[in-house]
């Protein structure tokens, strides 16, 4: 059974605190919310989280409510807390029926420990903005999959957002003093790095077999368009079928991306042989999940849109004015940059007008994109290979037969200047100079785009170009509303029309948050507080040092007392200096044992030869071991020898300490191996190779920029900590005297594409999400008029549960060796199928809980060659227990159990079942009055168009044409109605009729039809109608 629940959608009811709703319940009026997409898909016992997005401000309204679990303090649950809670009760699983309507972060706090798989579709914040926070704080620790560009670009997008927010807002103070209903879900940079490192990357059209609890699932990603690496996910389950998840796809081909693979006219994915194979792979799914947010929107033609944008840029910049483009950090940034950079190369080759990008991660985004050119259009993927070859030729020494010119990449961006901050751009370019500025973020909730608006609004000739409507309630949405209001009568942006740039002359009020250095009295008070803190710490350290000295003095005195008493008793050890045994002054004098700290003290005076100076002794050497000069007086019998006496006529006993024997490594010829020399040589060679080879590689450049970005972030954090500063909020009210233009470059589908695409895919069931009420009614009306389309269409609202199918029980059995040896497997798509007729045999030993399927002959042979009677009895008891369990589950039946059409009162009690009254234990239940098993079973879904293509290719080479609906006529050229003509017709579900004379054409057609199915051999005997394929001669 499949269960689908939208956890966060753009249109949802406000103030709803009910549990998960069914499709029959009514809903309150829906309002638009910021896009933070997340959907829960449960396939049998596997829970899949599709996307994990967040708004640009990372704030979820009413994020902590009464529906939260054990964590009631309003703070996010850490990953360790979630893991401990899961480990304390591993069998606990959160029931979806208990799920209450709440913001996404609150829902994930409850669901994260129970999620088994996460799929990320695009690199924008509305698809993966909350993933790093959920991974670090909410316990979302499971398998995560995304394409390589989404993993890389998504990390840069999230880092761009959180670093900008942390430079404007004191997150720690805001979290501690914020209201109970709001919380900014902002991770740290290290948490983002760790979270995205856990993502497992896949390529387009690369089937991936999952592991662990998801071992039964096969995952495949396809090209979605819209963003670099954007994915349409195909999930295949043996029990639930095929599920295709298509969110935010684009059917149109753009400058740097091909259209989605969903349409047959779209380009193939990287490495695919053609477009047909990819589009066929996602057709006819058991469940299609797609978004219909733009069901009532008609896109503007790309040619008209680009022409209007270039004309606006050219006229404005030629007049000496500037333009501002609020843009996202990666998803749609590349398309706009490619368009403007190509225009600059054509119109302004001398770069008179600066083309600027303000982004902390802009340089790394550009370098990373160059490594993913194979994910872009087919032409660019080919050009990427040419560029690599040209760079390799350029690195070689030039010769007369070699061309030294390297191919240029469309992602070189020769005219784009990237700045990490607005201050850096102001230092390089005067503010009054005409320029084009691309600034993040697109909704102007924070960052440089919000600050630049206050500057652009004062100049009546400057233009602010909006490429999206922005989030509801954001500054960008306010500008769009002002632009839309000032359009002409009868204008509607959703009808594919381009509006005019207007001057709203309305007043806009917004806040500017920033971090500024302290000045004046605030700086003096801060410095005094820091000095007072340093003085306090100094006093504390002095007190600790004084206490330490007192303890050492007490220990020193106790050591002296112990030494004196031991000397008098004769059993202790007094330390004598016997280093000067040649009769030097001071030989044999008593010295005091050093305390622990004195072992690390520096010698006070030394001479050139290394001996102690005047007044010095061996105790002043900084060694924590006893030297040979330190000896102890031994008074026992074993401490002295005849004729060998030490000072004072007593025996001398030297201190012992561990000795390390150093062995020299030699090779087989006796040569000494200098390991350090070879290691240093190896490091030098590797450094030389990395510096000389492949210096122009995009991968190396991207890694270098990543290291520079991390170093710059650390330096910025260090400077921010060194400079006393504070966070301020300014209230800004400006009059929009500049011109506002709206040219949509969202790169998404429209209603016309939706109404064309869905019928072509022929899904067995359809789920549509993200639409408002008007869009849902329109899409339902259009799709209901299509007779060939499925009637199982679901349009769930926010937190509305959709259940599809029934609960499927899957069982694990082990195939015996005799059964495996006789199987005839036939391949169908990704599976191998065979008909099995076997008996259930109970296993003994470590695998006693797993039943074994074996043939009757193999079981008889094993019984005949059985061992002792005790072993046979144990085997029989184990087999009887397995049979009774399978019979009670309904998998097999007993001899006394009637069929389903008989009297139920005759069914025996399961408790009285034994192995004696259970018949030949077929795995599949048998029906007494059913027809015999057919000779051959054909598995597959024949498409006449596919059959036509197969007949026209080798080895058949047989022309075929359609003759009416559902009929294909195959015959040699010019004889469509002659004796060699063969017709193929699909009369009903699972019934194919082949009519014709016994000719070579008939045999070829039959072989072609059989080749498109998986043939499974069954019982003996044949029939005219075999497995649904009927041949009429």
Automatic annotation (TrEMBL):
Entry-linked Gene3D superfamilies: Ribonuclease Z/Hydroxyacylglutathione hydrolase-like
Bias (Basic and acidic residues): 528-538
Keyword RNA-binding appears in the UniProt entry: yes
UniProtKB keywords: mRNA processing, Nucleus, RNA-binding
Subcellular localization: Nucleus
Predominant localisation class: nucleus
Domain Beta-Casp as annotated: residue spans: 333-479
Organism superkingdom: Eukaryota
GO-annotated biological processes: mRNA 3'-end processing by stem-loop binding and cleavage
MF GO annotations: RNA binding
Any GO CC annotation of this UniProt entry: mRNA cleavage and polyadenylation specificity factor complex
CDD domains for this protein: CPSF2-like_MBL-fold
Record has Nucleotidyltransferase as a keyword: no
Biased composition (Acidic residues): 553-571
Region (Disordered) residue spans: 63-90, 387-407, 528-575
Family: Belongs to the metallo-beta-lactamase superfamily. RNA-metabolizing metallo-beta-lactamase-like family. CPSF2/YSH1 subfamily.
Entry protein name: Cleavage and polyadenylation specificity factor subunit 2
């Amino acid at each position: 059974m499949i269960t689908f629940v939208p956890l966060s959608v753009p249109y949802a009811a406000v103030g709803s605190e009910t549990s998960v709703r069914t499709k029959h319940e009514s809903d309150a009026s829906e309002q638009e919310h910021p896009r933070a997409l997340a959907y829960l898909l449960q396939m049998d016992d596997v829970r899949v989280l599709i996307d994990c997005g967040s708004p640009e401000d990372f704030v979820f309204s009413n994020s902590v409510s009464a529906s939260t679990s054990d964590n009631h303090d309003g703070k996010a649950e850490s990953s360790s807390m979630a893991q401990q809670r899961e480990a304390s009760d591993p069998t606990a699983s959160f029931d979806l029926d208990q799920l209450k309507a709440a913001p996404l972060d609150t829902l994930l706090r409850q669901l994260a420990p129970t999620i088994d798989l996460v799929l990320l579709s695009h690199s924008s914040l509305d698809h993966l903005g909350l993933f790093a926070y959920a991974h670090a704080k909410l316990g979302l620790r499971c398998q995560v999959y995304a394409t390589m560009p989404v993993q890389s670009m998504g990390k840069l997008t999230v880092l761009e957002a959180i670093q900008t927010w942390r430079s404007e807002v004191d997150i720690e103070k805001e979290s501690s003093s914020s209201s109970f209903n709001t919380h900014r879900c902002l991770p740290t940079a290290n948490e983002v790095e760790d979270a995205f490192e856990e993502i497992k990357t896949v390529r387009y059209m690369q089937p991936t077999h999952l592991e662990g609890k998801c071992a039964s699932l096969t995952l495949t990603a396809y090209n979605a368009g819209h963003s670099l690496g954007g994915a349409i996910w195909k999930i295949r389950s043996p029990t639930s079928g095929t599920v295709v998840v298509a969110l935010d796809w684009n059917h149109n081909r753009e400058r740097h991306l091909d259209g989605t693979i969903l349409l047959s006219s779209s380009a193939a994915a990287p490495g695919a042989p053609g477009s047909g194979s990819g589009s066929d792979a996602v057709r006819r799914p058991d469940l299609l999940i797609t978004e219909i947010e733009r069901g009532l929107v008609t896109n503007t033609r790309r040619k008209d849109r680009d022409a209007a944008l270039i004309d606006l840029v050219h006229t404005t910049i030629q007049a000496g004015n500037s333009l501002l483009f609020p843009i996202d950090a990666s998803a749609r940034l590349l398309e706009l940059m490619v368009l403007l950079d190509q225009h600059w190369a054509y119109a302004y080759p001398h770069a008179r007008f600066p083309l600027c990008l303000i982004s902390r991660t802009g340089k790394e985004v550009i370098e990373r994109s160059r490594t993913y050119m194979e994910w872009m259009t087919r032409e660019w993927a080919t050009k990427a290979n040419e560029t690599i070859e040209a760079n390799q030729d350029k690195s070689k020494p030039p010769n007369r037969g070699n061309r030294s010119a390297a191919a240029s990449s469309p992602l070189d961006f020769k005219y784009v200047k990237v700045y990490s901050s607005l201050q850096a751009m102001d230092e390089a370019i005067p503010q009054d100079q005409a320029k084009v500025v691309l600034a993040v973020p697109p909704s102007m909730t924070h960052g440089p785009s919000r600050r630049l608006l206050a500057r652009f609004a004062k100049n009546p000739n400057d233009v602010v170009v909006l490429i999206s409507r922005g989030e509801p309630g954001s500054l960008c949405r306010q500008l769009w509303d002002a632009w839309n209001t000032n359009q002409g009568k009868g204008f509607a942006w959703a009808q594919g029309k381009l509006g005019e740039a207007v001057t709203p002359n309305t007043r806009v009020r917004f806040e500017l948050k920033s971090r500024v250095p302290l000045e004046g009295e605030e700086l003096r008070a801060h410095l005094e507080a820091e000095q007072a803190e340093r003085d306090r710490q100094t006093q504390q350290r002095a007190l600790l040092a004084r206490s330490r000295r007192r303890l050492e003095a007490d220990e020193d005195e106790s050591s002296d007392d112990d030494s004196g008493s031991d000397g008098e008793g004769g059993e202790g050890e007094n330390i004598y200096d016997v280093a000067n045994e040649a009769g030097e002054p001071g030989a044999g004098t008593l010295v005091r044992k050093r305390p622990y700290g004195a072992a690390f003290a520096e010698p006070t005076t030394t001479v050139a030869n290394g001996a102690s100076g005047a007044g010095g002794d061996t105790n002043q050497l900084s060694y924590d071991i006893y030297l040979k000069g330190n000896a102890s007086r031994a008074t026992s019998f074993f401490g002295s020898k005849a004729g060998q006496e030490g000072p004072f006529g007593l025996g001398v006993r030297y201190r012992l300490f561990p000795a390390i024997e150093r062995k020299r490594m030699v090779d087989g010829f006796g040569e000494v191996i200098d390991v350090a020399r070879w290691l240093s040589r190896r490091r030098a060679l590797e450094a030389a190779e990395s510096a000389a080879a492949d210096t122009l590689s995009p991968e190396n450049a991207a890694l270098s920029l990543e290291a520079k970005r991390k170093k710059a972030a650390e330096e910025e954090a260090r400077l921010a900590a060194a400079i006393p500063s504070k966070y301020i909020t300014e209230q800004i009210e400006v009059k929009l005297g500049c011109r506002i233009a709206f040219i949509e470059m969202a790169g998404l589908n429209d209603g016309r594409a939706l109404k064309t695409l869905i019928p072509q895919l022929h899904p067995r069931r359809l789920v549509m999400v993200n639409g408002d009420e008007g869009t849902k009614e329109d899409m339902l009306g259009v799709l209901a008029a299509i007779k060939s389309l499925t009637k199982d269409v679901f349009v769930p609202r926010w937190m509305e549960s959709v259940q599809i199918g029934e609960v499927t029980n899957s069982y694990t059995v082990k195939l015996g060796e005799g059964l495996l040896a006789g199987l005839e497997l036939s391949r169908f798509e990704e599976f191998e199928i065979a008909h099995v007729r076997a008996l259930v045999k109970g296993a003994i030993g470590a695998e006693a809980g797993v039943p074994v399927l074996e043939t009757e002959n193999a079981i008889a042979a094993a019984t005949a060659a059985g061992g002792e009677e005790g072993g046979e009895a144990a085997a029989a008891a184990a087999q009887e227990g397995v049979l009774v369990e399978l019979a009670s589950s309904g998998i097999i039946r007993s001899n006394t159990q009637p069929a389903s059409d008989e009297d139920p009162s005759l069914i025996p009690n399961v408790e009285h079942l034994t192995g004696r009254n259970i018949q030949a234990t077929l795995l599949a239940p048998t029906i007494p009055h059913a027809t015999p098993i057919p000779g051959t079973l054909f598995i597959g879904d024949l498409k006449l168009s596919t059959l036509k293509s197969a007949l026209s290719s080798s080895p058949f080479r047989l022309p075929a044409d359609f003759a009416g609906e559902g009929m294909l006529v195959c015959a040699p050229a010019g004889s469509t109605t002659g004796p060699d003509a063969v017709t193929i017709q699909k009369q009903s579900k699972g019934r194919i009729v082949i009519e014709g004379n016994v000719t070579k054409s008939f045999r070829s057609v039959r072989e072609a039809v059989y080749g498109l199915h998986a043939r499974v051999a069954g019982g003996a005997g044949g029939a005219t109608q075999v497995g649904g394929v009927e041949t009429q001669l």
